[in-house]
Design a protein that fits this description.
CATH architecture of the largest domain: 3-Layer(aba) Sandwich
Largest sheet: 5 strands, parallel
EC number: 2.1.1.228
Shape: elongated
GO cellular component, one term: cytosol
CATH topology of the largest domain: Alpha/beta knot
Catalytic activity: guanosine(37) in tRNA + S-adenosyl-L-methionine = N(1)-methylguanosine(37) in tRNA + S-adenosyl-L-homocysteine + H(+)
Keywords: Cytoplasm, Methyltransferase, S-adenosyl-L-methionine, Transferase, tRNA processing
Subcellular location: Cytoplasm
Radius of gyration: 22 Å
Distance between the termini: 35 Å
Strand order of the largest sheet: 2-1-6-5-8
Strand content: 15-25%
Bound molecules: adenine
CATH superfamily of the largest domain: SPOUT methyltransferase, trefoil knot domain
């Protein structure tokens, strides 16, 4: 899987690709990345990439020409191109799974008030919103999308870890504990020290139900009873 990211701030993304599990995946050749600085495609000597919106209004808009040239340089029109934006469809695990099947994804990091609509019309396949809030950095939104996808790619993390996770079957995860057995008078639940595997599985499932009902009534209401009892 290759991530090609168009950004005005490549350094924000570079540190992610150079750390932790992602770094290992890149070193193993499981993940490739290409960070494209949009400013390199600006047309004037000041390397201008933004301008005031037609029709007035607050803020600045990312100009079409530098973005289009940057997109052309990576042949974005024949690749799956994703634009994280608060105006997109809600980004979910299902979309991450679908995108993880692609060989390459091109991401556009927005800034300011947004990007020229003609870029969306001409190049973008998916406009995705990572949550019902607004952040100022399109790089952060792109990182969320990249992180959710790369970990699903073969060989990056174990199948077992993926299978146990929240959202795989619409229940949240059970609580985790590690040593020490007592921390600030808080003891690890006895059941987890019992060695009784079947009872641990049952306890964990109960905790998942409890947590989902409490923290995510929206998921709970949509969860069918048969699967809940499993
Ligand atoms: N850019 C700013 N806020 C965003 C959001 N909630 N989702 C995707 N991209 C964004």
């Amino acid at each position: 899987m290759k991530f090609t990211v168009l950004t005005l701030f490549p350094e924000i993304l570079e540190s992610f690709f150079n750390s932790s599990i992602m770094k290992k995946a890149v070193e193993k050749g499981l993940i490739e990345y290409n960070l494209v600085d949009i400013r390199d495609f600006a047309l004037d000597k000041h390397r201008t990439c933004d301008d005031a919106p037609y029709g007035g209004g607050a803020g600045m808009v990312l100009k079409a020409e530098p973005l289009a040239l940057a997109l052309d340089s990576v042949k974005a029109s024949v690749k799956r191109t994703v634009f994280p934006t608060p105006s997109g469809v809600r980004y979910t695990q299902k979309i991450a799974e679908e995108l993880s099947e692609e060989k390459e994804i091109v991401l556009i990091c927005g800034r300011y008030e947004g990007i020229d609509q003609r870029i969306i019309d001409l190049y973008v396949d998916d406009e995705v919103c990572i949550g019902d809030y607004v952040i100022s950095s399109g790089e952060i939104a792109s990182l969320v999308v990249i992180d959710s996808i790369y970990r699903l790619c073969d060989g990056v993390i174990t199948q077992e870890s993926l299978e146990e996770e929240s959202f795989q079957d619409t229940l949240l995860e059970y609580p985790h504990y590690t040593r020490p057995e007592v921390f600030r008078d808080q003891k690890v639940p006895d059941i987890l020290l019992s060695g009784h595997h079947a009872r641990i599985v049952e306890w964990r499932h109960g905790k998942r139900l409890e947590k989902t009902k409490k923290n995510r009534p929206d998921l709970w209401d949509g969860h069918d009873l048969d699967r809940r009892m499993k």
